[in-house]
């Protein structure tokens, strides 16, 4: 029931090192503040530029005069990508490519990142992998409703009301996978794909073999962001709800144990909020969306001009 926001974006397609393309949707602004950071946003599973939370956070950036971009994962712009691979929860090379490209274009502009759901998992994994080697232009990050443990999340979504989400995502993923198989016959087993009734089945039949994992369990084990939290050195907000239908709340307890050892991570786990929901307000027609507002508030507090950061951290 969320009101659709009108946010103008311009599509750019950037050629990747493996001769594929990724699409970047760039917020159209009449006036960009010279000292403003650039916001880069990562979407969730099967997200598109029309996803409500993307439009919401782009509108908040517009109100602040921030330049902002949405990185659409391969195949999420409405067209099959060209390479033999697709996107998944642990693929970070495209994010590295996008960040490097943005920095090369504006080396003096600070960057802040926000990731939603699957995009949050990709973001946290990338931050943890990079550790102290993350570019100095990156000031802060926020990750919202992250499936920190991919296997437990996939098992949880098979139960109760969450099965509605399982069915929705599976239909879309299967359609894309069949088109990919038409592009590259033999890339994976068509029979295994058609038998899939859960996201776990899909990842076992498609994601794992396409990307070199032994099976779904191997994929989840190697790509779950909880394994990378202790490597994060950039100020990072983890914002989740304990009633998230995509994740058992016990996983958040495990995340707390890791995050409390980090000086870089701020944890904000609420009793309610659902999955990328966090709706507030006293009237249905006067909604506010706390997660997006909180993410922008958090990263803005850590923005420091690039020359000043270099002087402070020689």
Summarize the structure.
The protein has about 325 residues and is an alpha/beta fold. The protein has helices at about 50-65, 95-105, 120-130, 150-155, 165-185, 190-195, 200-210, 215-225, 250-260, 290-300, 305-310, and strands at about 10-15, 20-25, 40, 70, 110-115, 140-145, 235-240, 265-270, 280, 290.
Report on this model:
This protein is of the alpha/beta class and 314 residues long. The chain contains eleven helices and ten strands. The chain has helices spanning 52-64, 93-105, 118-130, 150-156, 163-183, 190-195, 199-210, 216-223, 249-259, 290-300, 306-312; strands at residues 9-15, 21-27, 38-42, 68-72, 111-116, 138-144, 236-241, 265-270, 279-280, 288-289. An eight-stranded mixed β-sheet has the order 1-2-4-3-5-6-7-8, sandwiched between helices. β9 (279-280) and β10 (288-289) form a beta hairpin. α7 packs across α8 (216-223). The termini are far apart.
């Amino acid at each position: 029931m969320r009101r659709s926001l009108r946010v103008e974006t311009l599509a750019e397609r950037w050629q990747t090192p493996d001769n594929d393309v990724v699409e970047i949707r760039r917020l159209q602004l009449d006036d960009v503040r010279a000292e403003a950071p650039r916001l880069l946003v990562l979407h969730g599973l099967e997200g598109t530029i029309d996803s409500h939370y993307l439009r919401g956070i782009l509108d908040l950036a517009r109100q602040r005069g921030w330049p902002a971009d949405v990185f659409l994962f391969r195949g999420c712009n409405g067209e099959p990508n060209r390479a033999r691979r697709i996107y998944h929860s642990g693929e970070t090379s495209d994010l590295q490519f996008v960040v490097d490209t943005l920095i090369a274009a504006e080396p003096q502009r600070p960057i802040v990142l926000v990731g939603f759901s699957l995009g949050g998992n990709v973001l946290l994994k990338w931050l943890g992998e990079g550790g102290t080697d993350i570019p100095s232009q990156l000031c802060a990050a926020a990750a919202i409703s992250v499936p920190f443990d991919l296997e437990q999340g996939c098992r949880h979504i098979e139960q109760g009301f969450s099965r509605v989400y399982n069915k929705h995502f599976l239909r879309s993923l299967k359609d894309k996978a069949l088109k990919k198989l038409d592009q590259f016959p033999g890339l994976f087993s068509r029979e295994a794909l058609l038998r899939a009734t859960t996201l776990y089945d899909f990842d076992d039949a498609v994601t794992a073999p396409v990307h070199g994992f032994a099976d779904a369990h191997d994929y989840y084990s190697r790509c779950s962001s909880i394994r990378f939290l202790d490597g994060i050195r950039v100020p990072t907000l983890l914002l989740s709800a304990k009633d998230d239908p995509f994740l058992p709340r016990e996983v958040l307890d495990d995340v707390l144990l890791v995050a409390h050892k980090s000086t870089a991570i701020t944890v904000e786990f609420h009793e309610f909020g659902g999955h990328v929901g966090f709706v507030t307000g006293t009237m249905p027609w006067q909604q506010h969306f706390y997660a997006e507002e909180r993410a922008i508030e958090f990263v803005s507090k850590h923005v420091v001009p690039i020359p000043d950061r270099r002087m402070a951290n020689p």
